[in-house]
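Usage example:
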Amino acid sequence: MNIFRLAGDMTHLMSVLVLLLKIHTIKSCAGISLKTQELYALVFAARYLDIFTHYYSLYNTVMKLIFLGSSFSILWYMKRHKVVRRSYDKDQDTFRHHFLVLPCLVLALLINEKFTFKEVMWTFSIYLEAVAILPQLVLLQRTRNVDNLTGQYVFLLGAYRGLYIINWIYRYFAEPTYSTHWITWISGLLQTLLYADFFYYYINSVKNNVRLQLPA
Amino acid sequence: DADDSLKDEL
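Running the assembly step on the lines above writes:
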């Protein structure tokens, strides 16, 4: 494993921890899109179908368990916790996320590297992850004033995607057996581009030491 | 299997 991949995984892990920290300690999920969280839970469930059937490394298994466990506990907090769920911006979080799921599934059935159940589900998770942040970005745009933890959460997610792209470039040149993965690369690039606008405003707000505010 | 190289990623 190279340093970019590790750094990517760590920023991904930190993004989840920041979110759980916000929810658990402040008992608030204000500014967090339940739609995006539902999509991520689905992404992990579809992608990690091999968790008990194929062993890669202890690191791999533990991280998968953390991502699965954390995404479903975030869902539990936002839907069931009697205090946290009251802070959910239900009226603002109106993105119709179900309409993202079906096209991704159809695309995975049509464009995949191998037509098997596990491979199609894996490809579906790649497509869905690429667009899963959209409800969250729309919610941020609507709320405009973004609190620090929510801003950090989205920033860390974007950083994770960016680092994964560098990881792929590195692997492409460093590993002789590494083949081209157009599906993952294009999806990953699209996903990272979705953050570009947010990144611009986030970095400006950090530089000027002001609260993150997105344009209407 | 060439296309398994990505499966060790998260």
